[in-house]
Amino acid sequence: MIKILEKLLSIIYIQPCYFCKSIKDDNIICKKCYNKIHFMPPAVFREFSGVKVYACCLYDDIIKQLIKDLKYNGKKKLAALHAKLMFDYIQELHFKEKYVIVPVPISNQRRKERKYNHMELVAYELKKLTDYTVNKDILIRIKDTQKQYNLHKQERIKNIKNAFSLSENAGMPIDTPLLIIDDITSTGITFEEIIKTFHKNGYKNITAISLATPDIWN
Ligand SMILES: [Zn+2]
Fold first, then answer.
1. Which residue intervals of 94-152 are DSSP H helices?
2. Cβ(82)–Cβ(59) under 8 Å?
3. Is 182 strand, coil or helix?
4. CA gap 38, 126 in Å, rounded
5. Which CATH code for domain 37-213?
6. Nearest CA to 121 among 191, 63, 67, 61?
7. What stretches of 55-205 show up as alpha helix (H) in DSSP?
8. Whether the Cβ atoms of residue 100 and residue 207 lie closer than 8 Å to each other
9. How far apart are the CA of 160 and the centre of ligand 1, in A?
10. Is 165:192 a contact under the CB 8 Å cutoff?
11. Measured between alpha carbons, how far is 25 from 144 in angstroms, rounded to an integer?
12. Can you name the residues that pair with 96 across neighbouring β-strands?
C-alpha cells in the first residue's frame, strides 16, 4: 500500500522552480528564470601568464542566490545547476581538450565550518555532463584566507599570496590539461595565484573558468 502511494506521489510530484516557485516547467530552474541569466559572450575574460580565464555569466540575482545557497545554506542539489550553467557556456567555447577538472580548494578550517566544498560537488556534476575527470586532491589550500570580497585589491593580493600548494601524493603528468573551476571571479587574483602554483610545478596546459563575475568593467 505504501509503495503504491509513493509511486502515485512521484507521478504527481512536480518540482517547482527553485527561484520563482513556478511549477510550469518541472525543472529546478524554469525557462523564465533561466532567460534572466546574463551569459557572457564566448570570449576570454582575463589572461594570466598565457592562461585563459573565462567567466560564464554576470553575478546578478539568480546567480547570487544560487551561489549563496549552495555554498553556505547546504543546498547541495544546486551543484547540478551550477555545473549545467557552466556546461551551457563551455559548449559555446568548443574546447578540444579532455580536461581534468580541479575545483578551487578550501582550507581545513573552512571545511570544518561548512562541512563540504561546494566546488567539489560542482566538479563531479560537471564530470557527468562531459568526458572530463576530476582531481580534487592535487591542489591544496595551505593558508586560511579571509573572505576576499570586502578587501581592497592590494589587500586581496597580500591575502591570497602563497595560499596554495600542490599535493605530493596527487602526481599527474605535467602535460595534463587542467580546468580550474570556481564560483566567482572579479580581478581574478585567486586564479592567478593558482596558475602560479601550477606553473611553478611545471604544469603548463591550464584553463580557468568561473561561473560568475560581478564586474565586467574592471
Ligand atoms: Zn523560475
1. 108-114, 118-129
2. no
3. strand
4. 20
5. 3.40.50
6. 67
7. 61-71, 78-93, 108-114, 118-129, 153-160, 189-200
8. no
9. 36
10. no
11. 42
12. none
Q: Do 38 and 60 contact (CB within 8 A), yes or no?
A: yes
17 C-alpha to center of ligand 1: Å? 5
C-alpha separations of 91 from 56, 96, 114, 205 in Å = 11, 10, 31, 19
**What separation in Å is there between the alpha carbon of 52 and the centre of ligand 1?**
32
* pTM for the whole structure: 0.90
Measured between its terminal Cα atoms, the distance across the chain in Å is 61
C-alpha–C-alpha distance, residues 102 and 41, integer Å: 23
Q: What is the pLDDT of residues 14-63, one digit of tens each?
A: 788 999 998 877 789 999 999 999 999 999 999 999 999 999 999 999 99
Residue 149, pLDDT > 70, answer: no
Which residues line ion ligand 1, judged by CB < 5 Å?
17, 19-20, 22, 30, 33
Instruction: Compute the distance from residue 66 Cα to the ligand 1 centre, in Å.
Output: 12
CATH 3.40.50 intervals, the chain: 37-213
